[in-house]
Design a protein that fits this description.
The protein has 15 helices and 16 strands. By secondary structure, it is of the alpha/beta class.
C-alpha cells in the first residue's frame, strides 16, 4: 500500500501525535508499505523530498512551538507522482484541510484520526473572550464538514468517540483503534516492578507539554499536601512554563519540584522506570499516551477521572483516578498508590497489553486494506 500521512504537528516539536505518527509510519514501512509524510516545514518555504513533503508554514500565533501550514503549497504535484492509495489525516487544522482538498483532486479515500479535542484549545486561537466565543460557534460547523468528508474517522478511545457523537453526531463511519505504545523507544532502559520499602525520596513524574490545559496547578497544589520527601519531576516544555514555575515558588514547594525541560528518549525511559508514581491531572487527553508509556515501564498512574484516562487507569489495579480538579483527592490517591506500589506495579504492564504495537498496527493495516 501507498499511504500519505498528514499531520499539523511534526518534529522538532514532540507531542503525543508526533510520537504516534512516527511510530505508525515506521511500522507500516517495516511491513513493506510505502509512506510519504505531509507536514509543516520550519520555514516559510516548502521542501519536498521523496519521503517528506514539508509545507511552507509560519509560527502559530497562539503557540509559537507549533507551525501553521497556511501558505500556498505544492504538495499536490508530488502527491500525484506518489499516487497514494489512502490519505491518512492526523490533524483537522490547516494540514488536515489540505488533506481533504487533495483527496478531492486525487479521488482517493480519507481515513482521519481524531487525536485532539479542539474545543479545549480555544485559548490559543485568540486572547479576546468575544472572539473565542465566536470561534467556538464555528468549530462544530467545520468539524461537521471535516467528518463528513472522511471515509472513516478513527478515535483512540470510546470516550473520545462518544463525545464527538454527542456534540456533532455520527457523520460517517466511526472506528476505535488506540495509538500503540512505542516499545522500541521505551526499551532503551530496563524496567521491572517496584518493591517496598521505598528508600529515600518518593519520586513522582509528569511528562507532557507545559500548557494550561494540562492542569498542572492541580498536582502542584497536591504537592503542598504531601510529605516533604515527595519530589515531583516535570519533563517537557510549553507556553505555561513560567506560569507554573512561579506557582511552585508561591506555594513554597519549588525545592521539591524540578522542571526538567525537553528529555531525550534515553533519559525519558529511565525517568519512567525510576519514578514511583506517574501523575496526570490533565482533562485534555483523548487517550493519554504518557500514561500508557508509564504503565508499560511498571510505574502506576494517578490521573484525572476524565476522557481517555478513564479507560486506561483501573482503580486499585494499575493506579487510581481522582475527580478532575480536586488536589486534595489527588494527594490522597498518590499516597494510596505508594502504599500499594508493589501490587500496582506488578499489574501495570499487563494492563496495557491491548495497546501493544503488534496488536494495534495490525488493526490499522486491516482498516487500510479495506480501501485498496
Amino acid at each position: 500500500m501507498k499511504i500519505a500521512i498528514y499531520s499539523d504537528t511534526y518534529y522538532p516539536t514532540v507531542d503525543g501525535v508526533v510520537v504516534s505518527i512516527s511510530y505508525l509510519r515506521r511500522e507500516l514501512i517495516k511491513r513493506s508499505n510505502k509512506c510519504i509524510m505531509v507536514v509543516p516545514n520550519q520555514s516559510i518555504k516548502g521542501n519536498y523530498t521523496r519521503s517528506h513533503l514539508f509545507l511552507p508554514s509560519v509560527p502559530f500565533w497562539g503557540y509559537k512551538d507549533y507551525r501553521s501550514a497556511v501558505l500556498p503549497s505544492m504538495e499536490f504535484r508530488y502527491l500525484k507522482k506518489f499516487d497514494p492509495d489512502i490519505l491518512n489525516l492526523h490533524g483537522i487544522a490547516f494540514t488536515g484541510f489540505k488533506g481533504i482538498r487533495d483527496s478531492y483532486r486525487l479521488k482517493k479515500p480519507v481515513i482521519s484520526m481524531y487525536h485532539t479535542n479542539i474545543m479545549d484549545s480555544l485559548h490559543y486561537l485568540s486572547k479576546h473572550e468575544i472572539m473565542r466565543r465566536n470561534i467556538g460557534k464555528l468549530i462544530p460547523v467545520y468539524l461537521d464538514w471535516f467528518l463528513r468528508n472522511s471515509d472513516v474517522v478513527v478515535f483512540p478511545s470510546v470516550t473520545a468517540m462518544n463525545e464527538i457523537t454527542e456534540k456533532i453526531g455520527k457523520k460517517t463511519r466511526y472506528e476505535i483503534i488506540p495509538n500503540a505504545i512505542d516499545t522500541t523507544r521505551l526499551n532503551i532502559y530496563p524496567s521491572k516492578p517496584k518493591k517496598m520499602p521505598i528508600k529515600g525520596n518518593v519520586k513522582l513524574l509528569f511528562v507532557g507539554r507545559i500548557a494550561l490545559e494540562k492542569k498542572l496547578d492541580v498536582v502542584l497544589k497536591a504537592m503542598k499536601l504531601l510529605p516533604e520527601n515527595y519530589i515531583l519531576n516535570i519533563a517537557g516544555n510549553g507556553p505555561a512554563l513560567e506560569h507554573y514555575t512561579k506557582m511552585s515558588r508561591n506555594l513554597g514547594i519549588d525545592n521539591r519540584v524540578n522542571f526538567l525541560g525537553y528529555i531525550s528518549d534515553e533519559k525519558l525511559s529511565e525517568l519512567y522506570s525510576n519514578s514511583h508514581v506517574f501523575v496526570i491531572p490533565s482533562t485534555f487527553e483523548t487517550q493519554g499516551m504518557v500514561a500508557l508509556e508509564s504503565l508499560y515501564m511498571h510505574t502506576p498512574v494517578v490521573g484525572a477521572n476524565y476522557r481517555g484516562l478513564q479507560e486506561i487507569i483501573k482503580d486499585d489495579f494499575n493506579g487510581y483516578r481522582f475527580s478532575q480538579g480536586e488536589s486534595s483527592e489527588m494527594a490522597e490517591k498518590i499516597l494510596n498508590a505508594v502504599d500499594n506500589i508493589e501490587r500496582l506495579s506488578n499489574n501495570a504492564r499487563k494492563s496495557v497489553s491491548s495497546y501493544m504495537p503488534e496488536v494495534v498496527i495490525e488493526k490499522f493495516i486491516s482498516l487500510f486494506k479495506e480501501f485498496v
